[in-house]
Amino acid sequence: MTTHSPIPLRVGLVGTGPWARNTQAPALAAHPDAVLSGVWGRRPEAAEALAAAHGTTAYSDGTGLDELFAASDAIAFAVPPDVQAHLAARAAATGRHLLLDKPVATTIAGAREVARAVEQSGVASVVFCTLRFAPATAAWIDEQAALDDWFTAHAQWIGALYAPDTANEYAASPWRREKGGLWDVGPHVLSVLLPVLGDVTELTAARGRADTTHLVLRHTSGASSTVTLALGAPVGAVGTEIELRGEQGVVTLPRWSDAVGSFRAAVDALVDSARTGEPHPCDVRFGLRLTELLAEAEEQAGKR
User: Fold this and answer.
1) Domain limits at 34?
2) 148 lies in the same domain as 246
3) What percent of the chain has pLDDT over 90?
4) Over the stretch 198-247, which tens digit does the pLDDT of each residue have?
5) Do 100 and 128 form a contact (C-beta atoms < 8 A)?
6) What are phi and psi of 26, to 5 degrees?
7) What number of other Cβ atoms are within 10 A of residue 240's Cβ?
8) d(C-alpha 209, C-alpha 288), whole Å
9) Residue 246, beta-bridge partner list
10) Is residue 293, in this structure, part of any structural domain at all?
11) Cα-Cα end-to-end distance for the chain
12) How many domains does the chain have?
């Protein structure tokens, strides 16, 4: 638990899209141990609108990003992953702590660039994989990770983001449409399976209809898991579940909600890591590992 400090962490926000508006800016503005030190966006009008909504300063192209870094102790990112990777490495090089979104990057080189910058500068980092920070699911993951002899797991995260007449703001995201469910929701599933079953030692991937990707994984614990990921399914096929089976029986990931509260917990984690110097389990090194696995899956699935 974070111990409140009279000196809050100044966190700048890079990005002005739906995720920044709906989740990150509200969580940062209301956090007791953080101050939203500014908002940067490529479109000045969007940065000004979001900054005004939360009583902070707007920055835009030109020297604006450097000015935001100078006004901040840490930077949170709400931009496409490969834009994030370049800007995060730049921020870390200036000594700013990083609150990254998943995936860190969609290329191994990009994720390594960020990890290298963090290591060289000694800053703290946290990757916001929602299930690792939502209170109900975070506690469940910790409970299952403390148990031994899980035999197998099955996970599916199937969405209908592109269904006709969808009102989902995230359907307009070019990187999600290009990279599909593997890269968008794959990090969420892996962020649950790896702490419980161990790192992946063998991976097989194959494509299904639309953007569906199927994974078969072998873990260091000896357990295996199967994963199905999609964003382009029909509405009737939608569903998310992660199930573990072993000597303890069958357990299922609980439901979760409140993205703002989950992001607030990620801010807690960054504040603690920045103050103590202790790395968080879901830091940039874990984010790099997720990118390595997803890139391998993408390559395998593309050959089938």
Assistant:
1) 9-131+259-281
2) yes
3) 91
4) 999 999 999 999 999 999 999 999 999 999 999 999 999 999 999 999 99
5) yes
6) -60, -40
7) 16
8) 28
9) 150, 249
10) no
11) 46
12) 2
Mean pLDDT of 255-264: 94
If you average pLDDT over residues 37-61, what whole number do you get? 96
Give yes or no: residues 123 and 184 share one domain.
no
- Tokens coding 177: 């449409």
Same domain, 140 and 249: yes
Rounded Cα distance between 187 and 189, Å, is 6
Instruction: Identify whether residues 83 and 99 lie together within a single domain.
Output: yes
- In 3D, which of 16, 301, 20 has the Cα closest to residue 180? 301
Final residue before a domain boundary, out of 254, 273, 292: 254
**pLDDT, average across residues 257-271:** 96
Is the same domain home to 236 and 265?
Answer: no
Residues 50 and 163 in one domain: no
pLDDT band at 63 (very low <50, low <70, confident <90, very high): confident
- Do 170 and 241 share a structural domain? yes
Cα–Cα dist 114/98, whole Å: 10
Residue pair 243/155 in contact (Cβ under 8 Å)? The answer is: yes
Contacts of 142 (CB under 8 A, 6+ apart): none
For residue 173, which of 121, 106, 261, 89 has the smallest C-alpha distance?
A: 106
Answering whether pTM is above 0.90, one says: yes
Shared domain check, 241 and 263: no
Domain presence at residue 31: yes
Residues 107 and 53 sit within 8 Å (Cβ to Cβ): no
